[in-house]
Each structure stands twice: as structure tokens, then as C-alpha cells.
Automatic annotation (TrEMBL):
One of its GO terms (molecular function) is DNA binding. Residues 43-93 form the HTH cro/C1-type domain. It comes from Entotheonella factor. This is HTH cro/C1-type domain-containing protein. InterPro entries: Cro/C1-type_HTH, HigA2-like_HTH, Lambda_DNA-bd_dom_sf.
Length: 108
């Protein structure tokens, strides 16, 4: 007979579920998403970590550390610069929930 295993629905942010404060959880999730984009770009461009490190202006062990999920070493801004150096257009959408007007977009 199978045991009933309690299941709890997640919040949609693994870092919040792990006990990070709301603000920290949002930032860590953003860093994880940016890191995933960086490695996705590297894969699509078929760059080795060594080649990408040169392009990004860092040493290869830094990329290895990022790939292993050690996001606390990186700011959101630095990860956005990495994406820019990989040829991505990075934009920020600012939405005021109290206004019905279209959001403002800043391209970096």
C-alpha cells in the first residue's frame, strides 16, 4: 500500500520557498534567470567557457562558479553586462500598477 506523501504547492520562486526574504528571493531568482540566459547564449553560440570568459572579460573559473549556481558573487548589473557582451539586447520594463498607461522600457 502506498503511503500518502504530503505535497505543498510552491510559491513560484524557489528562493522564497527556501526561506529567503521576499526581496532577496526576487533578486536571487532574477540572477538565476540571467545566468540561465548567459549559458543558453553560450550554448547557442557554441562557446566554450574559456572562449566566453575571454569575451566577457573574466577568468574561466568565474563562469564555472556561475554555472554551479553561486549567484551571490554576481550583481544583477554585472550579469546584464555579460549578456550585453554576448550580443543580447537587455531591457528593463517598469510597470506602475496604479497607472493604466503602457510601461516604459529602457534598453541597456
Amino acid at each position: 500500500m502506498a503511503e500518502d506523501i504530503p505535497v505543498e504547492e510552491g510559491s513560484g520562486n524557489i528562493f522564497k520557498d527556501l526561506g529567503f526574504s521576499d526581496e532577496e528571493a526576487k533578486e536571487e531568482l532574477l540572477k538565476a534567470q540571467l545566468g540561465a540566459e548567459i549559458f543558453g547564449m553560450m550554448e547557442r553560440r557554441q562557446l566554450t567557457q574559456t572562449e566566453a570568459a575571454k569575451l566577457l572579460g573574466v577568468k574561466q573559473p568565474e563562469l564555472s562558479r556561475l554555472k554551479s549556481g553561486k549567484f551571490s558573487y554576481y550583481s544583477v548589473e554585472r550579469l546584464m553586462r555579460f549578456l550585453d557582451r554576448l550580443g543580447c539586447e537587455v531591457s528593463i520594463h517598469i510597470v506602475d500598477p496604479e497607472r493604466e498607461e503602457a510601461e516604459r522600457v529602457m534598453v541597456i
